[in-house]
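hiii, so i know i said id send this last week but things got crazy w the move. better late than never?? heres the sequnce for the chain we talked about at the cafe, plus the structure i predicted for it. fair warning i was half asleep when i ran it
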Amino acid sequence: MRQPSTPRFFLNLSIGTAILFLLVSILLVQLPKTLPNLNQLVGRSFQMPSERLLQFLTIEIPFFRTEGVQATANHQEIEINGEKQTLIPFFSFSNIKPEQWIKQEIPSFSQMDHLLASNLEAGDYRMESATPEELVVHEENKAEQSNNGQIPAATTEKKNAVFIYHTHNRESFVPETKKLYGNEQVIVYDEKVNITLVGKKLGEELDKLGIGSVISDEDYYPDLEHYSLAYAHSLGTVKTALQQNKDYRFVLDIHRDAPPKKDKSLTTTKINGKDYALISFVIGTGNKNYQQNKQLAETINETLNRLYPGISKGIIEKPKSAGTNGEYNQSVSPYSLTVEIGGHYNTIEDEYRSAKALAEAIADIYWQAVKVNTIVEPSEQ
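okay and structure toks below
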């Protein structure tokens, strides 16, 4: 025996359901007319406060959310336990048109008027066509769109995965201070135009790529008795940040380099005809997280040079000596790195391009780790 096709089965089911709705709706409308004293027959079992009744109806039937239905309900007041309550007889709704209800709850029926008015047979009716292929965003195109400032393909949502701070927050750039003060004096530290702008840019680019970040613009200089004490001050910032958030997977102290020669080429590379500030990673060998810090630096270094060949100068290891304790605040976290972006003769545009490149490398590493489920939870450290 031939079985009915699935589309025909669902069509019959839809038509049967619609007819049932229509019959019930007509009954609801006509019943108050034939039984005017229905409330007295059913007693208070069919009465309840109007607000509660409408709340029940609107949850299950969106049609009852309309102002017309709620405004035209017949109200009456009675006293219950000494308090006046506004009631709605259960079947006393006026201005409810069954066809309007059905059309709103079953969208296909809203097209019937159009069919009849146009004298079209059902088989001639043209349903809405599919979205043009060129407007469909496929998975492989999402990452590219995220780099163009559009919605990122993935996001850390409320989690912040990157903490950015600046131990030497006033490190500045000679081309910018010359423009700012209009003279030829070489100024390499400045309160306004400094490395914190690069940190903010890095945070903005990470956000575009779906990576949440927190940026500290703490100015340590007013409290410094000596320049060498800057790390002691910034250490408190890092410890507080790590106590407040256990989700950080990159703790970055952003600096700019200061080569002895006044030569921009020492801290600059050209990629696609544009100047990029060279990036390097400083790892202190005198801290307990040395190997993990170094491994993270190597991963970022490799990713950076893959995305932007030649942009990274590599990793600089600094042991404990008379001039440094080999810590650089990196002992507080296995994810802690000191990153130098450019030098004091780079422009802010050079710095911003490299900050964007660093953001892309970090995002690439983070999402790859998420993909293969290798993000280490704090309890596992």
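btw Strands lie at 76-80, 83-87, 160-165, 212-215, 250-257, 268-271, 274-277, 279-284, 312-318, 336-343. thought thatd interest u
miss u guys!!
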